[in-house]
Specification:
4 helices
């Protein structure tokens, strides 16, 4: 149970900023906005998968997850990954991806490497510990069409509260993480490029009386009149973008972690605004039920406003 719950703690927000998975909504948005939303989701979900993989490995490595440094390191249990521990004495590991092993569903291969350093704390499980992840030609290729996304740059992840399983399972303490990625260079298979930045916090709490886990996420920086910013940069079409939260997004395991109960975020792309309001009823108003009907998308493009409600 502990392993599965901690794994969930690293499956961060993998939600399309404006729900382009819905056919009706795809018909309403122009192709560049559709592609940018897809890129945004892929950026987040790929980095979240990396965090999950790294956490899975670190919990068994002395100096990172284990308190006892006497154990040896065995081969990596991760898909298509080997771990170079030659610099373990300096709390540095290299995750090397073989580029040929099919992983996950839909199937992808991963190549390149990620350098992982524990730059604060004695082990990753303690409060205030910080990991620095350096992406070096890290490429994820989708086998169905051979399209890829590649990352080069640095990301940090802070363990805000530490991992105290007893306090978590009694509901007295939550797991919380702070992520930063600045000037991450992102390349695509058609030679287009983007620059991505992210700043977000995520929190996981447990309610023993309801055996329910609650997930909360919000942006974690401010600039240029925006607050609670989650991500920003320049997309593959050389358009400036900013994604920010008007209120934190919240979901739980009772309704399904993908069925958000509340929250609102806005997506400003090249001066056009798209807002996603989560946890609404069929009329587009905040739901009063335990589990909401769906979400509302509102947009203002070239001075024209519109909105539509969609079910989960």
């Amino acid at each position: 149970m502990k392993r599965n719950m901690l794994k969930m703690a690293f499956v961060g927000l993998s939600i399309v900023v404006v729900g382009t998975g819905c056919g009706r909504l795809r018909d309403l948005l122009n192709p560049q906005i559709q592609q940018h939303n897809s890129d945004s989701n892929e950026f987040k979900s790929t980095l979240d998968q990396v965090d999950d993989n790294i956490n899975t490995a670190l919990k068994d490595i002395p100096g990172f997850g284990k308190m006892d440094g006497s154990d040896v390191i065995y081969s990596s249990p991760l898909c298509g990954v080997t771990i170079d521990s030659s610099e373990l004495a300096d709390q540095i590991l290299y995750f090397i991806f073989d580029g040929v092993t099919p992983c996950f569903s839909p199937s992808v291969t991963r190549s390149g490497q990620i350098k992982v350093e524990l730059i604060a704390g004695n082990n990753w499980g303690e409060q205030g510990a910080v990991l620095k992840e350096t992406f070096i030609d890290f490429r994820v290729t989708r086998l169905s069409d051979n399209k890829f996304i590649e990352f080069d740059g640095v990301k940090t992840l802070e363990n805000i509260n530490g991992h105290n399983w007893w306090l978590f399972l009694t509901g007295a303490e939550s797991f919380a993480y702070r992520e930063r990625a600045l000037d991450m260079q992102v390349s695509f298979s058609n030679n287009q490029q983007a620059v991505w930045n992210s700043a977000r916090t995520t929190e996981w709490s447990y309610t023993p009386s309801q055996t329910k886990i609650t997930f909360t996420a919000s942006g974690d920086t401010s600039f240029n009149g925006y607050s609670n910013i989650d991500s920003w940069g320049v997309n593959r079409y050389a358009q400036d973008f900013v994604t920010y939260y008007n209120s934190a997004i919240v979901s739980d395991t009772y309704c399904g972690l993908w069925r958000f109960n509340s929250g609102e975020l806005s997506h400003d792309v090249d001066g056009n605004l798209y807002t996603l309001t989560l946890g609404v009823n069929q009329q587009g108003n905040p739901s009063t039920q335990a589990c909401a009907y769906g979400f509302k998308v509102s947009w203002e493009v070239n001075g024209e406003q519109n909105s539509q409600v969609f079910s989960y």
